[in-house]
């Protein structure tokens, strides 16, 4: 267990990462450039789930990738592959393989506290069945 994440969020073109690296708590802002894939006739090392050869299309930013998808999603004959939920692709890129974590380092108290407050809130609406 050398490193694992406890929270990953997207903020614009940045990934906000909280976690542990060699038992040290980390908080980072990371500029993330995702990759998508397009169908191709050339042989490549990547294939779609259907076995179609695909070529990698790297991007500098997540915004650039989104804009590219919007411009090209209606292009005839162009099939776009990949995940545009970039938090998932970031986790897969930065934490490949089996992820091992130390449960004692994860703070669940805040979550429990918030749930208790929500359940006890006077603004909570009560439904009555007649």
Describe the structure.
The chain has 130 residues and is of the alpha+beta class. It has 2 domains: 1-32 and 85-122, DNA Polymerase, chain B, domain 1 (DNA Polymerase, Chain A, domain 1); 35-83, no CATH class. It contains 3 helices and 7 strands, in the order ββββββαβαα. A 4-stranded antiparallel beta sheet has the order 5-6-4-7, covered by helices on one side. A hairpin with a 5-residue loop joins β5 (46-47) and β6. The longest helix is centred in the C-terminal third of the chain and has 12 residues, at 109-120. The model has no long low-confidence stretch (mean pLDDT 85).
SSE blueprint and pairings:
Elements: E1 3-11, E2 14-21, E3 24-31, E4 35-39, E5 46-47, E6 53-58, H1 62-72, E7 80-81, H2 86-94, H3 109-120
Antiparallel strand pairs: 1-2, 2-3, 4-6, 4-7, 5-6
CATH class of the largest domain: Alpha Beta
Mean pLDDT value: 85
Shape: elongated
Residue stretches low in confidence (pLDDT < 50, at least 5 long) are none
CATH topology value of the largest domain: DNA Polymerase, Chain A, domain 1
Quaternary status of these chains?
A: single chain
State which percent range the strand residues make up: 25-35%
N-to-C SSE series? EEEEEEHEHH
Largest sheet: 4 strands, antiparallel
Number of DSSP helical runs: 3
Strand order of the largest sheet: 5-6-4-7
The CATH architecture of the largest domain can be given as 2-Layer Sandwich
Tell me roughly what share of residues is in helical segments.
10-25%
Please give the radius of gyration in angstroms.
21 Å
Overall number of strands = 7
- Write down the domain tally: 2
End-to-end C-alpha gap: 55 Å
Structural class: alpha+beta
């Amino acid at each position: 267990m050398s490193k694992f994440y406890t929270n990953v969020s997207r903020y614009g073109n940045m990934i906000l990462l909280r976690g542990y690296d060699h038992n040290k708590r980390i908080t980072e802002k990371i500029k993330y450039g995702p990759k998508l894939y397009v169908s191709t006739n050339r042989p490549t090392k990547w294939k779609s789930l259907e076995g179609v050869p695909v070529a990698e299309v790297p991007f500098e930013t997540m915004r650039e990738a989104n804009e590219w998808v919007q411009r090209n999603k209606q292009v005839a004959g162009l099939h776009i592959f990949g995940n545009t939920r970039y938090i998932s692709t970031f986790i897969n890129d930065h934490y490949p393989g089996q992820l091992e974590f130390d449960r004692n380092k994860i703070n669940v108290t805040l979550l429990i506290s918030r749930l208790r407050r929500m359940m006890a809130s006077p603004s909570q609406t009560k439904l009555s069945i007649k």
